[in-house]
Structure formats: C-alpha cells, structure tokens
Amino acid sequence: xxxxxxxxxxxxxxLQKNPRFREEYINQALQxxxxxxxxxxxxxxxxxxxxFTKLSKASGIQRQSLYKTLSASGNPEYKSVEKILSVLGYRxxxxxxxxxxxxxxxx
Length: 107
Hints:
By secondary structure, this protein is mainly alpha-helical. It has helices spanning 7-17, 19-31, 35-49, 51-59, 63-69, 78-88, and strands at residues 90-91, 105-106.
C-alpha cells in the first residue's frame, strides 16, 4: 500500500528523533514481562541511537556479546544492563510496587 510505513521503521525513527519517546520506550522495555521482547526493545533503542560499535566501546562489552545479550533469547547480567543503560544516558531506579507510572531517569 502506498503511503504506509513499516512499524519497525516508525519506531526506529521515533527513537532517533524524539527523546521523550525514547525514554518511555526504554521504560516500557524494562517493565516488559516477556524477556525476549524486553531485550529486543533495548536493542532497538541502542541501535537507533548510538549503534553497537559505539555502545561496545563505551560499555566495555564486546560487540558480539551485545548482539547476543540484546536478542530475543538474551539473558544479560544485571551489570550488563546497567552499563548499557548508562551509555544510553539512563539508570535503573526502584519504584514502589503498585505505582502505575515508572520512569527511566536521565543519568
């Protein structure tokens, strides 16, 4: 169909252009119950913003490990997630259970 856009293309474009969207997207990723979806969303955010080469250099995590970690079958260590988020400009915070809105905070 002419004039339609791929959903993934739209997400990547918004992640690149819209800091508020990116923040909410990362926050939703961290709240996602399905781990495969969670890591794929973080992968999208990293890929759309700084790319895996820069993420690897800045985080100290080998690029191939990042691809594996941020895949649908990834199983990253807490420390890796913390490093990735830090490079993207965010940090993990605790929010009391029951609150409907949580936010990723800029580092």
